[in-house]
Amino acid sequence: MTQRQIPKWSELKPLMRPKPLRFDATERRLADALTIADLRTVARHRTPRSVFDYTDGAAEAEITLGRARSLFRNLELRPSILHDVSAVDTTTDMLGKPAAVPFSFAPTGFTRLMHHEGERAVARVAERRGIPYALSTMGTTSIEDVAEAAPEARKWFQLYVWKDRSAGEDLMGRAKAAGYEALQLTVDVPVAGARLRDARNGFAIPPALTVKTVLDAATHPAWWMNLLTTEPLTFASLSEWSGTVADLLDKLFDATMTIADLEWLRASWDGPLIIKGIQTIEDARRVTDAGADAIVLSNHGGRQLDRAPVPLRLVPDVVEAVGDRTEVWVDTGIMSGADIVAALALGADATMVGRAYLYGLMAGGERGVDRAAEILTREVRRTMALLGVTRVDELGPQHVRLP
Ligand SMILES: Cc1cc2nc3c(=O)[nH]c(=O)nc-3n(C[C@H](O)[C@H](O)[C@H](O)COP(=O)(O)O)c2cc1C
User: Fold this and answer.
1) β-sheet bridge partners, residue 97
2) 125 phi and psi angles, rounded to 5 deg
3) Residue 231, exposed/middle/buried by CB under 10 A (0-12, 13-18, 19+)?
4) Any domain includes 401
5) Residue among 257, 258, 299 at smallest CA distance from 277
6) pTM for this predicted structure
7) Is the pLDDT of residue 16 over 90?
8) Nearest Cα to Cα of residue 368 among 67, 22, 26
9) Residue 265 is part of a domain; what is its CATH number?
10) Helices 25-32 & 36-46, crossing angle to 10 degrees?
11) In-domain check, residue 4
12) How many domains does one find in the chain?
């Protein structure tokens, strides 16, 4: 029989450790979010449905995004035991210069719609944490304003090639003058992908006031208040637009562009060139031959071609084909630091994250982006230690097995 006693106050007292009171609701929500998936849940409640869906969604049946995420979930990490992992260094080289962590913030359009602090918030976190940030052509803060908000951040400018080539040249000139380090050319948008959630939600820029959106305003008053009381949504690179995102992409982008146009680009931009949206070994070779300093294996987060190749799966073969001549980066589907570590172990030089920081932004503006970066950084560090490595270049194929 177990002997029982009445608990004494002296024994209970040391156990009473109430959680610190946080009066700021955003602080509380962010502190309670332990993973990027948790931030996504907060984001879903904090933003109107059409804005959340624009960010969270992908093209057509969203098979591409689902496959990319499930490959990360289903791969196996293989630890090596009994190594001194008391000091883990997450530094990686990107474009030949050290970055604090092995990921950068991917370019994303319409960021100020997700939270009014928008691109400036992302750039400030990038600056504080030593994470490079690519401003999108479709960004909602100007090239110069982002530079002013985060003068010390490593900034890249993501270019879409427009029908009007001189507009592209003008943007590159502005980015150079504002101190942007590299140009990132996105090549997987010859035409807009079919984002069906946007079509179903009637998502438009600027948001249209319909019965549905007015009703939504009642349930997300803070978001609407911030939208209506801060500077109107304009773009990093075009003066104004009103319509759907797909119409905008199709109106601006040049579907006639070919690899020969990279010569024009090289003549207009003399800094490092990153080509984003490579999805085959053959294309990796072609753009490397054309002089890319880095390539990003990416299918645009599943937002363009549905049933596209899973970028992570391409990593080992592409690294073997061109890894000695260019840096090979990968994105699409990254939801944790362990995903990042797996990509590096397979041979990628670095990774990019898109939605992961956007969920943070929607959940709590700049503080939310910071929380997302903190979560990913801690996960990278912990996963490396658990695998038995202390430096990124110690990661290798022995640490991961793909299904
Ligand atoms: C809301 C949103 C907007 C995006 N806008 C752009 C863009 O303007 N230019 C671009 O090159 N890529 C854009 N992307 C793609 C990202 O740069 C990146 O490739 C993708 O988000 C990676 O997948 P992940 O979200 O699973 O991390 C966008 C992605 C999202 C989610």
Assistant:
1) 94
2) -65, -40
3) exposed
4) no
5) 299
6) 0.95
7) no
8) 26
9) 3.20.20.70
10) 150
11) no
12) 1
State which amino acid sits at residue 396: G
| Digit-coded pLDDT (tens) for 129-142 | 999 999 999 899 99
CA 19 and chain centroid, separation: 32
- 172 touches 159 (CB < 8 A): yes
Closest to 190 (Cα-Cα) out of 319, 305, 65? 305
Phi and psi angles of residue 28, each rounded to the nearest 5 degrees, phi first: -65, -45
CA 302 to ligand 1 centroid distance, Å:
9
Q: Which residues are CB-neighbours of 82 under 8 A, at least 6 positions away?
A: 388
Q: pLDDT (tens digit, 9 = 90+) per residue, 43-57? A: 999 999 999 999 999
Q: Is residue 10 part of a domain?
A: no
For 145, the token pair is 């304003």
Q: Judge whether 344 lies within some domain.
A: yes
For residue 311, what are the domain limits? 25-80+92-396
Provide the residue count of the chain: 403
In this structure, the residues whose C-beta lies within 6 A of any atom of ligand 1 are 55, 106-109, 136, 138, 158, 186, 276, 298, 300-301, 303, 331-334, 353-356, 358
- Separation of CA 107 and ligand 1 centre (Å): 6
CB 114, CB 358: distance < 8 Å: yes
